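In practice, a research group might receive sequence data for several interacting partners and want a quick structural hypothesis before committing to experiments. The following worked case mirrors that situation: the sequences arrive first, and a predicted assembly follows.
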Amino acid sequence: MSGCSDCSSCNSATVVEFPGSRSALKTVAVIGPPNSGKTTLFNRLTGLHQKVANFPGVTVEQHTGIAALPDGRTVQLIDLPGVYSLLPRSEDEQVAHDVLNGLRADTAKPEAVLLVLDSTNMARHLMLAAPILALGLPTLVILNMADDLRNRGGRVDLEKLSAELGAPVALISARRGQGVDQVFDFLAGAMSKPLPRELPILQDVPKCRQWAGHVGSQAAYRAPAPPKWTRRLDSVFLHPIAGPLLFLVVVVGIFQAIFTVAVPSQVAVDWLIQHSGNWVASVLPEGLFKSLVIEGVWKGVGSVVVFLPQILLLFLFIGILEDSGYLARAALIADRTMAKVGLQGKSFIPLLSAHACAVPAIMSTRTIENKRDRIATILIAPFMTCSARLPVYLLIIGAFIPNRPLLGRFLSSGAAAMLGLYLLGFLMAVLTARVLKSSILKSGRTPFLLEMPSYRWPTLTSLGLRLLDRGKVFLVRAGTIILLVSVLLWGALHLPYTNGHAPEIANSVAGTIGRTIEPVIRPLGFNWKIGIGLISAVFSRETIIATLGTIYGMDKESPGLQAAIHHDLTMGGAVALLVFFAFAMQCVSTIAVVRRETGGWKWPILQFSYMTVVAYLGAFAAFHLIR
Amino acid sequence: MQLSVNCDLPEPLAMSLMDLRRGDAAILDGIDLPTDDARRLMELGFLPGTQITAGRSAPGGDPQVFQVDGSEIALRRETAKRMTVRRKKTAKLDPSSRA
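A structural hypothesis for the assembly, expressed as tokens:
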């Protein structure tokens, strides 16, 4: 064992000064390895007082929250990403390292640390204690999952452990809330710097592990028996035959639920938006402002908010899968298939849910720790046929492809065309993934590692907070960037305003743009009217139906619209339009969510350009091949 | 330890994690991967000298779960085959397990 060779901070002052109650909040970082229950504890401590944002410039999400102490004071908590060490190699580790060392300008340097470790795996998790204690910040070492430890016959002498580490130790169960008061006591009390008996050389992993083992044995740590229930459940969920079958049941169940169960709730939200819009319309005076509020804000933001039930439902399922521990098993089963296109098992669920909507799918890529795999998954997700494409497909297919039986009663030509479009999107996603993973997002030889956590019952609190968190993130976006784009698009469609009336759509700004871009889209078989439709579809894909309806002066439901489109498009043009919709990234919400999740404009711009080029070339080819 | 020559059995010179069947236990000898990757594996418990037990796997045997240092970690074949192991002395040769 080596001495305190890496602990240069020991020389600095030993008294930690806290700002008095008058000044800024005391900031405390929460850190721990993945699967240590760090986030569960964070949720316990802060409850609803949380804020989510990205650390500027990186994909790492920053959770901050306020913990109210029993004496009425408050402490700001920062939930750092789950890491095994503080060596800055991955983005997560870089952020954790920088925040703890006060190197990030956007985050206050924490004055204390809550180190969360899994007590059932204490010896290994203690390895993270070495670099944390070496920071010299007041630290509470929290041994989580005390209930598991006890039930499985493990034990540890807390006093001896505390003496070895030179820091206070608390044995808690964040899930059940046992012992959490000790954490509050630490936050409220006078914190002092840790004085560990000895620390290993931090760069030397075997030495660190040896040190952790030594500390564990000094503290009379007895590791718990292997998790009996986890082994039993795995004998079913990872059974060579039953495993894949159950996997299919889970996957099909989620897919079905997102598609069918979400529809009534979506109808309800739609109804709410429409009726609230009608009410607002009845209150506002006629004129430009009313049009802006109703046609721009209400319809624009409403067309996005409508996805909220789907998003919440998907996150409910993902929450259950992740918290129960099944998600790791599902990723294991799906890994080999996904590896064929250069991705990994954890990309499967996001790509599946992208068939309902790319927005929650992209939000759910968060479960993929490997950043390159995560970005690749985000970039290909919008190629999957989402539910917003369906109305457009139905309209065009209905107008151009006569519904003849192909395979008796089983497959009509319309359904075959629809299936073909699903396949088209899927194939382009696979192709794109291959290209990305063999070029700019090559994972190199970074090994794929997947930790299998023990199975646990998901708790309602954790699921509820997760839904609230995701819902909030989504609505905030709808209220900001999507609101802005909605207003801009409204302006394009309703200006210039003359004599108190909106112009004919042909004479509006959008109409002018439509005519301007006509030379560009003519090779695809589209005229300026379709052009306006395409511009309005940037909003969200199905908007093109309402826009075309307005242009042709038809009710969007009537067969008249189909006939009118038939008049303006050749068969080749119709197929080109379908191909264009299959490939193009016409969805403000998706662009906004990609920007958020990737922490900048680089990826969404690249993705939008790439998908537009692919859509253009695809449509061009379709138009010239079919004509 | 690593220098000693094993002349008991004509086993293949280098056996990798990939060669373990479910339930087999072995001692990790070395990791033939770039330093950073080896470090990451070591942080998860794959330290030379540690006992590793092969667990269940995805259909087709890839990736496979390994029990190591109190947790279960799944590795792909391509990674497992770069990790050399030696068999643990079998239980029947170990007098302490009989007592």
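Before designing any experiment, note the following. Confidence is low (pLDDT under 50) at residues 91-99 of chain B. The longest strand of chain B covers residues 25-31.
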